[in-house]
Amino acid sequence: MNITQTSVAERPATSEKVDFDVIGIGAGFAGLALIHYVREAGLSVRVFDRAADVGGTWAWNRYPGAATDSESYYYCLAFSKEILQEWSWTKRYPGRQETQEYLQFVADRCHMWPHIQLNTEIVEAKYLEGRGIWQVTTGTGETFTAKYFVSGMGMISEPVIPRIPGMDKFKGPLFHSSRWPREGLDYAGKRVGIIGAGATTVQMVPELAKTAASVTVFQRTPNYILPAMQREMTPEWEAEIKANYDAIIAKCRAHVFGMAFDSPVGRNALDTPAEERQRIFEEKWTGSFRWVFETFDDLLASPEANRMAADFIGAKMKERVKDKRLADLLTPTFDDYPLFAKRPPLDHGYLEAFNEPHVHLVDIKNDQPIVEITETGVRTTKEDYEFDFIVLSTGFKAYTGALEAFPIRGEGGQTLAEKWKTVSECVMGVCAAGFPNMFMVTGPQAPFANLPTSIEQNVIWITKCMAKMKREGLAVFHPRREAEKAWTAQTADIHRQTLMAEGHKVNSWMMGANREDKPPRVLIYFGGANFYYDALDKSAEEGFPELEFENA
């Protein structure tokens, strides 16, 4: 394909004058993919972002140690073979800055900047009934209109801020990990408190521990931690990747979690003799999530197989922590919860950090719950801890949080937050009944998979729909309520058959169980990302039967 700037239609394709054919929010992977495919369809587009640069998650998450958990060479957009060949990754798992630089490179190379408006917060989006268009309002009061409104705000972008008494009393900096101060924060020689022990903390602690006077982690639930086994990209490895990129991208498209992994089709842990099973577990312990997906097919479906996997991971974790009491606190068991009922982090030295005398762990679930934040730190039921700053590493309002953070009004003025008060219903995670001409990229009930792959598959479906409407002179689409109910029921039925359904017991964000303002709900399609992508393709081939169209 030619990646010079695609010409766009001089006049938006709608019966009413609008500013753009498409307005998108979010200039990360989703926003850049949207610009590319919308231009390919000959439509005009403007993507807004409140950040000062492109990057999405990677523009905001500036905490020490922030990095991808997917391997670099398939954590990327695939629409340009030229960019796949031109861009060079430096590591197996790139850090925040390198990932953002990649997205800047894509925006530069594809001449996307004229379609991006940064430092602009959208405070309301509403569907103008009777006119068939969307209007968005910025924080400065400006308004813009478009035929289509697309959210590319990300599934984990709106932070959860816990309600701990006294949070306004603390005299030092106190902030969510995803809002790390832009100018940086000097933590050398400082006493750092971290509330929360999920994937962000697992990345953050090894970096902070290098120079901080002390690091104290307040943990509610331990995690199954898989090894990252970071390594530098070598010329030989890069050459092998670039020579096989078509196969790598195809492998992502065909994998249940959108990863460039092989699959042990037909090999089950329960059917494998113990000695052989242990040999395979050890052989595949080479870093990344590969271990889960390239060992046995039944680890996430069979409780007995999952227990075997949990026991293996637990033993590996405990080998790396010298103090037995700490090792036990840091290591979950199957009896606590199954592997993948919570999203497992990748380790870059987290467990070893607790071998250092200045790194501490506080069990706030079983030993000493937090009572309040004081002027000088954190008070538990047993002790006062003093800190120079406190990090709230308390996760995100996954899948729906960004879509509920400001009013997005559909028919009758109903907001998405109102619609999703008890159940987050969607059509394939890309649109919702009652919200005509609105699309979501990786919305609720989409898969939890390698995000660039899922994003691109979503955007392809979205722009195929736009192209159909342009070609056939259609003005408005309405997501069918019956299609939404059917997808929601299917997603819930699949979820009940998996061990991920145990997530509500451990406050997993994958079920929204980490939120105090909503009951847990099914947020993720666990039927396999590859089958989900097939469903998108089938929908497009059949003319989008989930939607009802109005003529112009």
Report on this structure.
- With 552 residues, this protein is α/β, with parallel strands linked by helices.
- 30% of the residues lie in helices and 16% in strands.
- The strands form five sheets. Strands 1, 2, 3, 4, 5, 6, 17 and 18 form an eight-stranded mixed β-sheet that branches.
- Strand 4 and strand 5 form a beta hairpin.
- Helix 1 (29-40) packs parallel to helix 15 and helix 15 (451-472) runs parallel beside helix 17 (529-541).
- The radius of gyration is 24 Å and the shape is globular.
- Residues 1-14 have low confidence and may be disordered.
**Helix-strand makeup class:** alpha/beta
**Global outline:** globular
What would you report as the Rg, rounded to the nearest angstrom? Answer: 24 Å
- Per DSSP, the total helix count is 17
Average pLDDT level: 94
Number of strands: 20
SS strand fraction: 15-25%
Which residues sit in consecutive blocks of at least 5 with pLDDT less than 50?
A: 1-14
List the helices and strands and how they pair.
Elements: E1 20-25, H1 29-40, E2 45-48, H2 57-60, H3 81-86, H4 96-109, E3 116-117, E4 122-128, E5 133-138, E6 143-151, E7 174-176, E8 191-195, H5 199-208, E9 214-219, E10 226-227, H6 235-243, H7 245-253, H8 274-283, H9 290-295, H10 303-318, H11 324-330, E11 346-347, H12 350-353, E12 359-363, E13 370-373, E14 377-380, E15 384-386, E16 389-392, H13 401-404, E17 408-409, H14 416-419, E18 438-440, H15 451-472, E19 474-479, H16 481-496, H17 529-541, E20 547-551
Parallel strand pairs: 1-2, 1-6, 2-3, 4-17, 6-18, 7-16, 8-9, 8-16, 9-12, 10-11
Antiparallel strand pairs: 4-5, 5-6, 13-14, 14-15, 19-20
Helix pairs in contact: 1-15, 15-17
